[in-house]
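Entry type: protein chain
Record version: 2
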Amino acid sequence: MRCLKFLPGLIFAAVFAAGQASAAEPVKIRLAWVVPVSNWATMLVEKMDLARHNGKSYTLEAVRYQGTPPMITALAAGELEIALLAYPTVGLAIENAGMKDLRIIADETQDGAPGHYSHEFMVRNDSPIRSVTDLKGKVLATNASGSAVDIAMRAILRKSRIDVKKDVTVIETSFPNMKAMLGEKKVDLVPAVLPFSFDPGLRSIGRTLFTQRDAMGTNELGFWAARAGFIQKNRAALVDLSEDTMRIIRWYLDPANHKAAVAIAAKITKQPEQNFDAWLFTDKDYYRDRNMIPNLAALQSNLNVVHELGLIKAPITIKQYADLSIVQEAAKRLK
């Protein structure tokens, strides 16, 4: 009977301990990426020795997508915690998918920033195409409808009064296949993004017709977005992830680590190191903010173009969908 007397207390203690253990479980964070090396997720997992909080407050998983639009579906289905969105897809997520709880929490890359790289749209060296107006009646490649390069292409066609639905044919293919599609004359124009744009093989057969900067100015190419409910529940883990990410980013951006960074990029892509040495994490690369602060003014301008193209019905004031407090707190820890 004396044993039974203490049984409720023992049960409570066991339940409490189990609850505490469960609460202490690291938060699983799936981070999306599209292009190896250029997207931070692929580089972060190679330097997790600098991630002091990984395995403690969070665990990180890098998840690949063909482009940014499919990430919206993944966010909605709970299959992704942090999407790597671009200026077109954030508008589609907010308006078309109804994600009013979407929040921009960190920056990754900016295309066309002063003094830095911008995507190139390339035609064959032997092509008679010399201007955007010459693209009428041609076959153009894109990675995914509604992606950043796709919108830039549509924007510059619109400036030249070319109807993307009537005057050209657009087909989708992955970035690694762009060189073959151009070389085999299956398409007349391809978007060339890092690291593929510096492939010597592509450079030998193609030339640049225009850049994404020509179409969009400085543009928010990639930024982290999560849903407000997840942020509220897991804010501490997100600050830890941001702190670790900044520490790793700063390691990659340090010229003293250039050789090691190039070796990692070559390992990931299975390409020679010389394909990266001249540009990776230099001014020939995208602009990458060491504090992961997005350029909201540029993003607003980019969204205005998306609206003008008719892809979103109403203008969006993007500041109300940004929560930069997470990266701001993380940056303070590293000062």
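Comment: Residues 228-253 form the longest helix (26 residues).
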